[in-house]
Amino acid sequence: MRKLISFFHISLDGFVAGPNGEMNWITIDQEIFDHVGIRIGTGDMAMYGRVTYQMMENYWPTAADKPNATKHDIEHSKWYKHAHKVVLSNSMKDTVLPNTTVISDNLIHQVNAIKNSQGENQSDILVFGSPTATHALMEQNLIDGFWLFVNPIVLGKGIPLFVDVKTPMKLQLISTKPFTSGVTELNYVVKE
Fold this sequence. Notes:
Largest sheet: 8 strands, mixed
Distance between the termini: 15 Å
Radius of gyration: 16 Å
Number of helices: 5
Mean pLDDT: 91
CATH class of the domain at 1-14 and 45-153: Alpha Beta
CATH architecture of the domain at 1-14 and 45-153: 3-Layer(aba) Sandwich
Number of strands: 10
Strand content: 25-35%
Low-confidence stretches: none
Structural class: alpha/beta
CATH topology of the domain at 1-14 and 45-153: Dihydrofolate Reductase, subunit A
C-alpha cells in the first residue's frame, strides 16, 4: 500500500505560510532542490489542494521550456508532466483533466482506493503544500507521514500545519538532514 506523505516547508513556530499565504520566507537552494529531487524522482503520483494545484499547473508544465530554466526547473517540469496528479477540491467537481484525478467527495474511500492502487511503482504519494487539503486528510487520519523542511525563522503568525487536532498524533522520527542554509529536514511516520 502506498503511503500518503505531507511535504511542507515550515517555520520554526509551525507555520507553512504567512497570514496571506506568503512563502517568501522559505529558504531553498540547489542543495535542497537536489535532495528533494531524488525522493520525488522515485514517485509517480502527487496530491494537491485546488489552490496549490492551480499554482503548480500554471508554472511546471512549461518551466523547462523557458530560456532561463534552471536545472531544477528542467528536472521537476519533466517529473510533473509524467506524475499523476490528485486534486482535492469541492469547486473542481466533475472537472476532467489529463493525467489528473479530482476528489470532491467520499474523501476516505477515494483516498484509500488511490493508496491501494497499482502504479508504475508503489512509492509514496506526496501531498505538496496544500494546508487546507492536509488538514482535511489529517482529520480523517489519512496522512501516513510528514516530510518537513524546518526553516530557521519564527513567523509569529500565519497558516499553521497543525490545527484543531482532535486526538494526539504520535510520530516517529525516521531521518533528519541539516543543510548548509540552516534548513533542517525532518522525516516522520505516523505511529499506529
